[in-house]
Amino acid sequence: MNKLTKMIVVLSVIGLVSGGILSLMYQWAEPKIKVNQIKANDAAVFQVVPGTVKYKQISDKDLTYFECYGQRGEKTGTAILCQGNGYQGVIKMMVGVNADFSKFTGMIVLEQVETPGLGAKIAEGAFTAQFKGLASKPPIEYVKSAKPSKLNQIEAITGATISSRAVVNIINKTVQQWQQAK
């Protein structure tokens, strides 16, 4: 066997063994990842709609939302799972609206891969806190380098306007889908 053939055989064996190990690790980890995602979604529902004791999950095509109920069975609001493209990848959030859909009750970023130190600030409390008590009609707007002057506005993150805009667009689009579905 010449030198080139030996190299090809050795590299092929290493590649097959590495690929097999990676595949086994993925199969082992996938159920654990799904359980953790369900736990994160569950916790987010209770955080974005205060006063929620129980909820009912509803899935309609590519839309998932959670009808939330309080201690006495009264509807406390709705938590809506929002997902869309950001600057560097998919952003997944949970937003809450009150029972009469007049205000947002909260927002939590569940997954994001935005630029660390800039776009990743969408998951920080200073940004997400802006959504608590935010008017739900008309659709959310963002302002740059200024304080919001309307009840439906948030302040974009300096240096991460694209990520801020993506969050606003994802929420507006998903809420519109939710309104049409119900």
Describe the secondary structure blueprint for this structure.
Blueprint (H helix, E strand, L loop, with lengths): L2 H46 L5 E7 L2 E7 L5 E11 L4 E9 L5 E8 L13 H4 L12 E3 L9 E3 L5 H21 L1
Parallel strand pairs: 6-7
Antiparallel strand pairs: 1-2, 2-3, 3-4, 4-5
Nearest-angstrom radius of gyration?
A: 22 Å
In terms of per-residue confidence, which ranges show pLDDT below 50 for 5 or more consecutive residues?
A: none
Report the major sheet: 5 strands, antiparallel
Helical content stands at 25-40%
The total strand number stands at 7
Percent of residues in beta strands? 25-35%
Q: How many domains in all?
A: 1
Topology order in helix (H) and strand (E) letters: HEEEEEHEEH
Shape: extended
* Helical/strand content category: alpha+beta
Average pLDDT: 90
Summed up, the helix count is: 3
In the sheet with the most strands, the strands line up as 1-2-3-4-5
How would you describe what is shown here?
With 182 residues, the protein is of the alpha+beta class. It has one domain. It is 39% helix and 26% strand. The chain contains three helices and seven strands. A five-stranded antiparallel sheet has the order 1-2-3-4-5, with helices on both faces. Strands 6-7 form a two-stranded parallel sheet. The longest helix is centred in the first third of the chain and has 46 residues. The N and C termini lie far apart (70 Å). The mean pLDDT is 90.
